[in-house]
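Handout for the seminar on molecular recognition.
Each group receives one record of this type.
Step one: identify the two inputs.
Step two: read the structure output and locate the region that could contact CO-5-methoxybenzimidazolylcobamide.
Step three: write two sentences on what you found, then compare them with the reference statements printed after the record.
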Amino acid sequence: MSKEEFFREAKQAILNHDRDKAEEVAKRGLAEGLDPVEFITKGFREGITQIGDLFGRGEIFMPQLIEAADAMKTANKILTESMPESAQEKRGKVVIGTVQGDIHDIGKFLVISLLQVNGFEIYDLGHDVEIQKFIDKALEVEADIIGSSALLTTTMIGQKTLEEKLRKEGLKNRFKTMVGGAPVTQRWTERIGADAFGEDANDAVEKALRLVGSK
Ligand code: B1M
């Protein structure tokens, strides 16, 4: 089977919100030697992006969205677990979470996986994380970077609160910050004073490497 056919099957499994099929395709693709990052980005992610559009247009409803997300998470987990952890020296410590009020964590999971593969030590706070927790954890583990993910226009404000708190507590120079999530932009990043914007998981790695290099 060609790579493109695998990508099509992966996308279709998500569009059909079929977790078993997503799991089966992910495992079969890996066995055939597909690159897990390419498989996620060109296959499964295409499916979940279309699901988002369908949901946005009211063509599918919450139960289908939840099932599709579940299928996506299953495939994501299988594929990211197959990525080798870097044997290199650790490049830096990253405290990361999805901001308060927001439970979206599929993208964050992908970002974490690629950061790990690239030698970063990760402290994942999970989702719906109170802003102060990012700071407390970063102080506890002496993090290099604090990363926050936000998928809702209503929760992005948490990223601004984080910057304000860091400045107020005199910690802005101690940690670098990276923001990401579908509604987040470079403009927003500059507006709130964060140090970097990660557009996708690959970009997040590139920016994280730059941030630790610039410390
Ligand atoms: Co939600 N949801 N959702 N949802 N959901 C969106 C975000 C939405 C755009 C769908 C739509 O209407 N078209 C919309 C937001 C609208 C808005 O704010 N303008 C929306 C809504 C409205 C909601 C609810 C409010 C629905 C409701 O209850 N009425 C609700 C909110 C719950 C809450 O959080 N409080 C809700 C719930 C859910 C599910 C639980 C069903 C599920 C989440 C499951 C989970 O994550 N465990 C879900 C899903 C799956 C989506 C969509 C379809 C897909 C998100 C996703 O996983 N994308 C989404 C539509 C969309 O985005 N097209 C949608 C794939 C993922 C790989 O991409 O997350 O963007 P992404 O991550 C990327 C980059 O953004 C970047 O790298 C990642 C990898 O490439 N990145 C970072 C992300 N974080 C980063 C951090 C970094 C750097 C880069 O540095 C720290």
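Reference statements: Residues 23 and 74 are 6 Å apart (CA to CA). The beta strands are 92-98, 120-124, 145-149, 176-180, 196-198.
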